[in-house]
Amino acid sequence: MSSLAEELLAKIPEQRERWLHEHGQRAMILQMATGEGKSIVIAMMAIYTVVQLKKRVHVLENNEGLLERDFASYAPFYASFGLSCAKSIDGSSDICYCLKRENNAYFNAAILRGQLELGDTVLIVDEVD
After folding, report:
1. CA-based Rg of the chain, rounded to a whole angstrom?
2. Which of 40, 98, 123, 129 has its CB surrounded by the most CB atoms within 10 Å?
3. Spatial separation of the C-alpha atoms in residues 44 and 47, rounded to whole Å
Protein backbone atom coordinates (compact mmCIF):
# COMPACT_ATOMS: atom_id res chain seq x y z
CA MET A 1 0.00 0.00 0.00
CA SER A 2 1.33 3.47 -0.82
CA SER A 3 2.26 5.85 1.97
CA LEU A 4 -0.34 8.34 0.67
CA ALA A 5 -3.11 5.74 1.01
CA GLU A 6 -1.89 4.84 4.50
CA GLU A 7 -1.80 8.52 5.46
CA LEU A 8 -5.34 9.13 4.18
CA LEU A 9 -6.74 6.05 5.94
CA ALA A 10 -4.99 7.00 9.18
CA LYS A 11 -6.79 10.39 9.22
CA ILE A 12 -10.31 8.94 9.07
CA PRO A 13 -10.70 8.20 12.82
CA GLU A 14 -9.20 11.57 13.75
CA GLN A 15 -11.57 13.46 11.44
CA ARG A 16 -14.56 11.42 12.60
CA GLU A 17 -13.79 12.06 16.28
CA ARG A 18 -13.32 15.80 15.63
CA TRP A 19 -16.64 16.01 13.75
CA LEU A 20 -18.52 14.07 16.44
CA HIS A 21 -17.06 16.25 19.19
CA GLU A 22 -17.80 19.51 17.33
CA HIS A 23 -21.42 18.46 16.77
CA GLY A 24 -21.99 16.91 20.19
CA GLN A 25 -22.67 13.47 18.70
CA ARG A 26 -21.53 9.97 19.68
CA ALA A 27 -22.31 8.22 16.39
CA MET A 28 -23.57 8.93 12.90
CA ILE A 29 -25.69 7.22 10.28
CA LEU A 30 -25.50 8.37 6.68
CA GLN A 31 -28.20 7.94 4.09
CA MET A 32 -27.33 8.21 0.43
CA ALA A 33 -29.65 8.23 -2.54
CA THR A 34 -29.11 6.25 -5.72
CA GLY A 35 -26.23 7.64 -7.74
CA GLU A 36 -24.52 9.47 -4.87
CA GLY A 37 -21.55 7.10 -4.61
CA LYS A 38 -22.69 4.63 -1.96
CA SER A 39 -20.68 1.77 -3.47
CA ILE A 40 -17.37 3.66 -3.34
CA VAL A 41 -18.10 4.77 0.24
CA ILE A 42 -18.70 1.12 1.15
CA ALA A 43 -15.46 0.14 -0.59
CA MET A 44 -13.48 2.78 1.31
CA MET A 45 -15.04 1.75 4.63
CA ALA A 46 -14.18 -1.87 3.87
CA ILE A 47 -10.55 -0.92 3.20
CA TYR A 48 -10.39 1.16 6.37
CA THR A 49 -11.87 -1.68 8.42
CA VAL A 50 -9.35 -4.23 7.14
CA VAL A 51 -6.27 -2.00 7.17
CA GLN A 52 -6.83 0.05 10.32
CA LEU A 53 -9.11 -2.11 12.47
CA LYS A 54 -7.56 -5.43 11.36
CA LYS A 55 -10.96 -7.05 10.84
CA ARG A 56 -12.49 -8.96 7.93
CA VAL A 57 -15.48 -7.46 6.13
CA HIS A 58 -18.68 -8.96 4.74
CA VAL A 59 -20.45 -6.59 2.34
CA LEU A 60 -24.05 -7.74 2.48
CA GLU A 61 -26.02 -7.33 -0.75
CA ASN A 62 -29.67 -8.09 -1.38
CA ASN A 63 -29.46 -8.25 -5.15
CA GLU A 64 -27.25 -10.73 -7.02
CA GLY A 65 -26.82 -8.33 -9.94
CA LEU A 66 -25.51 -5.56 -7.67
CA LEU A 67 -23.24 -8.04 -5.93
CA GLU A 68 -21.73 -9.07 -9.29
CA ARG A 69 -21.38 -5.43 -10.38
CA ASP A 70 -19.78 -4.19 -7.17
CA PHE A 71 -17.45 -7.16 -6.90
CA ALA A 72 -16.26 -6.70 -10.49
CA SER A 73 -15.84 -2.95 -9.98
CA TYR A 74 -14.02 -3.01 -6.65
CA ALA A 75 -11.97 -6.24 -6.56
CA PRO A 76 -9.15 -4.54 -8.54
CA PHE A 77 -9.40 -1.49 -6.25
CA TYR A 78 -9.00 -3.71 -3.17
CA ALA A 79 -6.10 -5.52 -4.83
CA SER A 80 -4.33 -2.18 -5.29
CA PHE A 81 -4.28 -1.96 -1.47
CA GLY A 82 -2.97 -5.53 -1.22
CA LEU A 83 -6.34 -6.86 -0.02
CA SER A 84 -8.10 -10.02 -1.14
CA CYS A 85 -11.77 -10.07 -2.12
CA ALA A 86 -14.27 -12.85 -2.82
CA LYS A 87 -17.81 -13.16 -4.21
CA SER A 88 -18.80 -15.49 -1.40
CA ILE A 89 -17.83 -16.00 2.22
CA ASP A 90 -14.59 -17.85 2.72
CA GLY A 91 -12.13 -18.09 5.57
CA SER A 92 -9.25 -16.29 3.92
CA SER A 93 -10.44 -13.21 2.03
CA ASP A 94 -10.20 -9.79 3.62
CA ILE A 95 -13.45 -8.63 2.01
CA CYS A 96 -16.34 -10.90 1.00
CA TYR A 97 -19.32 -9.75 -1.03
CA CYS A 98 -22.27 -11.95 -0.11
CA LEU A 99 -26.03 -12.23 -0.29
CA LYS A 100 -28.15 -12.09 2.84
CA ARG A 101 -29.06 -15.79 2.61
CA GLU A 102 -25.39 -16.80 2.32
CA ASN A 103 -24.41 -14.65 5.29
CA ASN A 104 -27.26 -16.10 7.38
CA ALA A 105 -26.21 -19.66 6.46
CA TYR A 106 -22.57 -18.91 7.33
CA PHE A 107 -23.36 -17.59 10.80
CA ASN A 108 -26.06 -20.21 11.49
CA ALA A 109 -23.56 -22.97 10.69
CA ALA A 110 -21.03 -21.37 13.06
CA ILE A 111 -23.67 -21.27 15.81
CA LEU A 112 -24.47 -24.97 15.32
CA ARG A 113 -20.77 -25.87 15.51
CA GLY A 114 -20.44 -23.76 18.67
CA GLN A 115 -17.84 -21.61 16.91
CA LEU A 116 -19.60 -18.27 16.51
CA GLU A 117 -16.99 -15.52 16.71
CA LEU A 118 -18.29 -12.02 16.04
CA GLY A 119 -15.24 -10.03 17.08
CA ASP A 120 -13.21 -10.41 13.90
CA THR A 121 -15.79 -9.61 11.20
CA VAL A 122 -17.57 -6.35 10.38
CA LEU A 123 -20.79 -6.44 8.39
CA ILE A 124 -21.45 -3.56 5.98
CA VAL A 125 -25.05 -3.64 4.82
CA ASP A 126 -25.94 -2.29 1.38
CA GLU A 127 -29.71 -1.89 0.90
CA VAL A 128 -30.81 -5.14 2.47
CA ASP A 129 -34.43 -5.42 3.54
Report:
1. 15
2. 98
3. 5
